[in-house]
Amino acid sequence: MDWSTNRLCRLLGTRLPIIQGGMIYMSGARLAAAVANAGGLGLLGSGSMRPDLFRDQLRKCRTLTDRPFGVNVPLLYSHSAEILEIALAEGVRLFVTSAGSPRRAIGRLKDRGCTVLHVVASPALAVKCEDAGCDAVVCEGFEAGGHNGREELTTLVLVPQCVAAVTIPVVAAGGIATGAQWAACMALGADGVQIGTRFAMTQESSGHAAFKARVAAAAFDETMLMMKKHIPVRLLRNRFTERVAELEARGASRDELVELLGQGRARRGMLEGDLDEGELEIGQVSGMIGDVPTVAEVVARLEAGYAEAAGRLG
Fold first, then answer.
1. What is the CATH number of domain 7-206+295-313?
2. Bridge partners, residue 116, by sequence
3. What local confidence, expressed as pLDDT, does residue 245 receive?
């Protein structure tokens, strides 16, 4: 299919209206470059990188692809300002910001001629992003892995409301792993999709092999949204989530949840492979995924699945 007139492709300079989610501990240089080479927008997930590592990964990504890629910057982290400055100094001009108000960074980025997308969980936030000057919004439904909005709007409900609320391109995210799901989002009026879990489950993602094997074996009902008193996050069930559930059932405070979470829990689970006590962030769509192919294979399946779904719909 020819996507040359698609608004998102024209904005990003990509062949396909597909963005790879900037997932912590998953989205290093190899994954971002592989997605870029396959025709989508690869993102370096800076949320789990200290400034020096981020700079190294950014420079490595440039050696692996000559196609557009960007950086995801969760604005809640203390080092996000430094990450932004490094990215700008290194010539990055495509940013997806999240976890905070885009107004914290939009002026600095637009003054440097950057394209800025922001992740939202409600149509009201989408409107605020357009008013702030964002070029597009990534509308992420409740199904998504990792940190989520408190609104608990599903992708099927969120996307058409955002499309109706703003004039800038809308990117659907949350629960998308197949070409048919991509087609469904386009039918709702989205200009493209952001895909996380399916790209996390590829050979190029930096997740630990044990983590990928656990996700591949996951049943349809093994994720849940937890820690709403702190920062809501969708996790795969394990011993750690059982302990979180026990605390939440007795009305634990935010401070108690933070104490249990401790330091490096996500790194421990996703990067180091501690399947019992680590934080295993992944989307609901994990129940549909049972393999770990290359990015090129995933993108080829997405394109074939989209064409089949479009043909079936007539």
1. 3.20.20.70
2. 95
3. 86
